[in-house]
Design a protein that fits this description.
heterodimer; A: 110 residues; mainly beta; 6-stranded mixed β-sheet; 3-stranded antiparallel β-sheet; 44% strand; B: 114 residues; 4-stranded antiparallel β-sheet; globular
Amino acid sequence: AQRVTQPEKLLSVFKGAPVELKCNYSYSGSPELFWYVQYSRQRLQLLLRHISRESIKGFTADLNKGETSFHLKKPFAQEEDSAMYYCALSAPYNFNKFYFGSGTKLNVKP
Amino acid sequence: DAGITQSPRHKVTETGTPVTLRCHQTENHRYMYWYRQDPGHGLRLIHYSYGVKDTDKGEVSDGYSVSRSKTEDFLLTLESATSSQTSVYFCAISDPGEGTGELFFGEGSRLTVL
């Protein structure tokens, strides 16, 4: 069965510090991995997906199939990055169902 | 924002009463989903629909039913609400025509069952 694990419930860093939000997954096939973000009083929105290999708002994430990880990184955190971050997995040919981790709340202190 | 609206946005009800949440989309996306969001659990899939009148169960479907009589509307019903169903409910849509597509979310419906 598929599972997405985000080990940190809360991550607090100072502005300008590097940040890494961890995500590990288990799935027997080749899933697609995503990061979604929920800013205060806003709806969930896509931050990035592994197949696009883009950098969005300075965030990057590399899929490591050997370690089954998809950690989200940013070299210099900003206060506006404070939000709830969800790692998600989508299994191909399965009605585009997404499976989400429990989320990590990032708090960037001034 | 994708054209997704949820109603009601907030509801307080009592144990044992029926509740229906509505999701309406204007994007003509084929797939629609209901998730619940709970601290420590993230988002969990309740039910999903892959077309009109085509629905199936997700991870946490007990106590919930759904209906989709039109492409644009996906209803989630709690036949007899319980306190464990106090949660924030999110509707999402996607378009399989774009491969493993992005999920677009509604603003959420906060339900409190007393």
